[in-house]
Structure formats: C-alpha cells, structure tokens
C-alpha cells in the first residue's frame, strides 16, 4: 500500500496530543512564532505535535517520538506580554517518516496513520472504563461537580473517537498517553487503557494510605 507523504511544521512538546483533544499554546520562541506565521498562510493551518521523549521543549537537542498528532489551528490571539496565544485541536494521527533540517523550526515528512478497524466496541467495557475514570477523579480529590460532569459526559459513538476521548479524560502521564496514541486499533487502545487505569488506581490508593 502506498502511503502519501507530506511536509508538516512540527511542535515537539513534553506531552502528546490525541485526536479530538484541545491544545492551548502560548508561543514566544522566535522559531515557533515563524512557524505559526507559515501555518496561518496555509488553507488548512496545521502543524504536528510529537512527544519529547528526552530533552527539553526550548532550545532543541531533544529526542522525539516518531508517532504524533496533527493539530489544526482554530484561533490565534496576542497577549499583553508579547506572546501569541494559540487554540488548536488534534485532528488525526501521523507517523514521522523523516525529520528534515530545521527551517528554522522543526519540520518533518509525515504520513497519516489511521486506526485499523477493530469492529464494534463492547458497551460493557466502555461503561467500566468510564466508571474507573470517575473513581480516579474522586481519589484524586476532584470536586463533586467536576466528578459528576465526568459521569454524565456524552461519549462519542465512533470507535476511534470514543477510544481517544476516554484516553484524553483519563488522569494519566505523558508516557502512558503516548502508549495509547501508538495503539493500532480502538480495541487495542481501550484494552491498554483498562490496564493503565488499574495501575494508576493502585498508585492513588497507595498514596492515600496513612503514614
């Protein structure tokens, strides 16, 4: 199967972005200000987001993940301190085929990486995952109102969108979120999320033990 490749400006970050998740940014580094201007000249203002596996967001010299997410710019505003506020949203999963020379911002040749169809999702598993996420919100000390909002939240019907929605809601770290992003299908992602939530619950409950 031929995979279409295309160039995309890239924004390495300390946390991965999942499709359909919002991403607010405050851009101040000159090379990323230039990247933003280039994106805004495009008919579809997009850039790629990848997790920095080792290193730092500022200054370069980082080690970057090879699977990330394309983000579409929805809104840009100027802040009083001279920064540019950007509101974007994840739109699709991408694979980094080749990193290109910085120009001066990171640039890569990428291809889209859609999920493999895994068929229908088990509604019982979905409700179990939702309940687990609500429980973790309670263990983390979330307010009653925010916990109730999680419990009442309308979930997506399409399997990929649903798996990403639950992954975004889960109180997990960057490494676990990246693990979910790279899963090949919605079912694999949901199974991995269930395992991750069990580990997170164990950590939360250990932290709540009396000294």
Cα-atom radius of gyration: 18 Å
Q: Summarize the biggest pleated sheet.
A: 5 strands, mixed, barrel
- The average pLDDT score comes to 92
The beta-strand count equals 7
Helix fraction, binned, reads 25-40%
What fraction strand?
A: 25-35%
Structural class: alpha+beta
Helix-strand sequence: EEHEEEEEHHHHH
* Shape field: globular
In whole angstroms, how far apart are the ends? 58 Å
Cross-sheet strand order for the largest sheet: 1-3-5-6-7
Q: Which blocks of ≥5 consecutive residues have pLDDT under 50?
A: none
Number of helices: 6
Description:
The protein is an alpha+beta fold. Helices cover 37% and strands 29% of the residues. It contains 6 helices and 7 strands, in the order E-E-H-E-E-E-E-E-H-H-H-H-H. It has a 5-stranded mixed β-barrel. Helix 2 runs antiparallel to helix 3, helix 2 packs parallel to helix 6 and helix 4 packs parallel to helix 6. The longest helix is centred in the last third of the chain and has 22 residues. It is globular and about 50 Å long. The N and C termini lie far apart (58 Å).
Protein traits:
alpha+beta; 5-stranded mixed beta barrel; globular; 211 residues; 6 helices
């Amino acid at each position: 199967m031929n995979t279409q490749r295309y160039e995309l400006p890239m924004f390495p970050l300390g946390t991965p972005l999942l499709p359909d998740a919002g991403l607010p940014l405050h851009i101040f580094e000159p090379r990323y200000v230039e990247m933003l201007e280039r994106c805004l000249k495009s008919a579809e203002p997009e850039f790629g987001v990848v997790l920095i596996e080792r290193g730092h967001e500022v200054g370069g010299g980082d080690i970057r993940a090879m699977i990330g997410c394309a983000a579409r710019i929805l809104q840009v505003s100027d802040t009083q301190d001279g920064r540019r506020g950007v509101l974007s949203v994840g739109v699709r999963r991408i694979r980094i085929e080749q990193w290109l020379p910085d120009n001066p911002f990171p640039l890569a040749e990428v291809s889209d990486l859609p999920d493999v169809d895994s068929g229908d999702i088990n509604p019982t598993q979905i409700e179990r995952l939702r309940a687990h996420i609500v429980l973790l919100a309670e263990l983390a000390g979330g307010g009653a109102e925010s916990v109730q909002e999680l419990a009442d939240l309308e979930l997506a019907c399409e399997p990929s969108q649903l798996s990403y929605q639950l992954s975004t809601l889960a109180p997990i770290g960057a490494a676990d979120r990246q693990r979910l992003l790279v899963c090949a299908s919605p079912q694999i992602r949901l199974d991995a999320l269930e395992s991750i939530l069990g580990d997170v619950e164990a950590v939360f409950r250990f932290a709540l033990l009396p000294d």
